UniProtKB/TrEMBL annotation:
Primary location recorded for the protein, binned into one broad class: membrane
Gene3D superfamilies hit by this protein: Cytochrome c-like domain
UniProt remark on cofactor binding: Binds 3 heme c groups covalently per subunit.
The organism's taxonomic lineage, starting at the top: Bacteria, Pseudomonadati, Pseudomonadota, Alphaproteobacteria, Acetobacterales
Keyword Iron set for record: yes
Key words of the record: Cell membrane, Heme, Iron, Membrane, Metal-binding, Repeat, Signal
Residues that bind heme c 1: C59, C62, H63
Statement: the UniProt record of this protein carries the keyword Iron: yes
Compartments (UniProt record): Cell membrane
UniProt cross-references to InterPro entries, sorted A to Z: Cyt_c-like_dom, Cyt_c-like_dom_sf, Cytochrome_c-type_DH, Membr-bd_ADH_cyt_c
Record organism: Neoasaia chiangmaiensis
Name by which UniProt lists this protein: Aldehyde dehydrogenase
Length: 445
């Protein structure tokens, strides 16, 4: 055999062996369908516990259609726009034809543990199985009991628009998992106490905070090297949750708890945009101790104990910056624009922020590398059921032009922070405006 033939032979041989190995890794058998289990076959305790697991995993958020008038709860067809095309979530009600009614508990468990559907096909990581794999067997079993005892809804989702060849799930998803997925239940870290471990279990698994707060690589996988460094989601920036969080006041356990429990942290601001439903519709169902545990965990992730000594001075500086810019006649036209549009609500004269008048000098909207959140808040407003109970901020969608929004953003960044100015503000304002389709009719609902 010539050398060249030998080399080619070796490469082909390796390819065949690799291909067989890959198939063994990526191919899964179908699990036999079952007739839908009766709700009465589950104990009310299991169903109740499962309801909490569903709340902590926001299943209803991604499995309920919201566009075009919306759809029934858990019946899927929620549109997720990804760089690889639109993916529509599955119906997870117990309907046997269009939902998961004929999935055995083993099939459901395999989907949560490994991201494999009952028929053996690979699921896209838009379904955050890379986090759900950490959920305990007991919690998955309770979750199954809860889902199977919900009303069955007959309704198929729309077709995905993921193009060829990424839509060949066996190969595309198989390789993705080979590269980025490490399956396995959460293991307690003995270096930490029970509360920390409970918080980490929820945050890293069911509550999948990293799915929005960790940047992703070109193939859509979370970058392990940049854990919690922040990411853009539906136009909004989910800020870093580690020591790279740029807001002047360090997120302490107390601030985190208030934010995650009530949607508002007095020394930071409100949970708006994609973060909004998390405290209000989901974490609010959990026992307070679970939310406290998540706060406890992130106060460690961002090293609050070592850094929170700076907080008092940071609040004082922010209040001084605000006061200095609100007193006396304003000759700066940008300041006058702010006075007219915003200052009636956003002014603070005392030593500390007043609830109901968020101190912008402390808010992530002014401190992030990009002005996305500031523009999004101006465009959307904050509904009365978002943020603080019953307290709304009007939408400026029609009230302010892109040019005006850009001037207010530049002014606030210049006077309330010590960070470099943002660039191309008017263009960015227009880009954010274009993400609102259709525009809000009445932001104070
Ligand atoms: C971030 C959005 C998101 C969240 C949160 C989410 N899912 Fe999904 N889920 C999806 C998408 C999208 C799919 C479809 C994936 C695909 O087509 O490959 C899916 C698919 C599934 C499937 C496969 C169904 C089938 O017919 O193949 C199951 C089971 C499932 N999800 C259960 C759950 C449960 C239980 C929860 C809550 C613990 C949950 N999901 C939370 C987005 C989500
Ligand atoms: C669906 C995406 C998404 C998920 C899931 C999510 N977040 Fe967020 N989060 C965001 C966005 C977007 C913001 C910015 C909201 C704003 O500025 O009002 C945010 C803001 C925050 C903030 C405020 C940061 C700051 O500096 O202002 C904290 C703290 C936070 N999230 C914690 C969490 C925790 C803990 C979890 C898991 C329990 C979580 N988030 C899950 C999208 C998400
Ligand atoms: C009518 C009163 C009012 C006006 C006018 C107003 N706001 Fe607000 N704003 C609020 C309230 C109230 C909140 C907190 C809402 C909540 O938590 O429910 C808020 C919150 C915010 C936040 C923080 C959002 C978060 O995620 O934490 C920003 C940023 C903001 N406003 C910017 C502005 C800007 C810029 C203007 C002027 C263009 C403005 N606001 C005008 C009342 C107002």
């Amino acid at each position: 055999m010539t050398l060249i033939k030998r080399v080619v032979g070796a490469v082909v041989g390796l390819g065949v062996v690799g291909g067989v190995g890959f198939l063994a890794y990526a191919w899964y058998p179908s699990i036999a369908p079952v007739s839908p289990p009766a709700a009465s076959s589950f104990s009310p305790e299991a169903i109740h516990r499962g309801q909490l697991v569903a709340a902590a995993g926001y299943c209803a958020e991604c499995h309920t259609r919201t566009d075009n008038g919306g759809g029934p709860r858990m019946a899927g067809d929620y549109k997720m726009e990804t760089p690889f095309g639109d993916i529509f979530s599955s119906n997870i009600t117990p309907d046997p034809e269009t939902g998961i009614g004929n999935w055995s508990e083993a099939a459901f468990k395999r989907a949560m543990n490994l991201g494999i559907a009952r028929d053996g096909s690979q699921l896209y990581p838009a379904f955050p199985f890379d986090h759900f794999t950490k959920v305990s067997d007991q919690d998955v079993s309770d979750l199954y009991a809860y889902l199977m005892s919900q009303p069955a809804i007959h309704r198929a989702p729309r077709e995905n628009t993921v193009p060829f060849p990424i839509n060949i799930r066996l190969i595309g998803q198989g390789f993705w998992k080979l590269l980025f997925f490490s399956p396995g239940r959460y293991r307690n870290d003995p270096a930490h106490d029970a509360e920390w471990n409970r918080g980490a279990y929820l945050a890293e698994g069911d509550a999948h905070c990293g799915a929005c707060h960790t940047p992703r690589n070109a193939l859509g996988a979370e970058k392990k090297s940049a854990l919690y460094d922040g990411n853009v989601i539906d136009g909004w920036i989910a800020p870093p949750l580690n020591e790279h969080n740029p807001t002047p006041v360090v997120w302490t356990e107390d601030e985190l708890f208030k934010y995650l429990r009530h949607g508002v942290a007095p020394l930071h601001g409100s949970a708006a945009g994609p973060m909004n439903p998390i405290p209000h519709e989901f974490l609010s169902e959990l026992p307070e101790s679970d939310v406290r545990a998540i706060a406890h965990y992130y106060a460690d992730v961002d090293h609050a104990a070592q850094r929170e000594g700076q907080n008092q001075a940071a609040v004082a500086t922010a209040m001084d910056r605000s006061k200095a810019n609100l007193i006396g006649p304003q000759t700066d036209p940008d300041a006058r624009l702010y006075q007219g549009a915003c200052a009636a609500c956003h002014y603070n004269a005392g030593p500390a922020p007043v609830p109901g008048r968020p101190e912008l000098a402390l808010n992530n909207a002014l401190w992030l590398d990009e002005p996305n959140n500031l523009f999004m808040v101006m465009l959307h407003g904050i509904g009365a059921r978002e943020g603080q109970d019953g307290i709304a901020m009007p939408s400026f969608y029609t009230g302010l032009s892109d040019h005006d929004m850009a001037r207010i953003a530049a002014y606030l960044r210049r006077t309330r922070t010590n960070l470099p100015p943002w660039t191309d503000l008017e263009k960015k304002a227009a880009k954010m405006r274009a993400t609102l389709k259709p525009p809000p009719i009445n932001a104070s609902h």
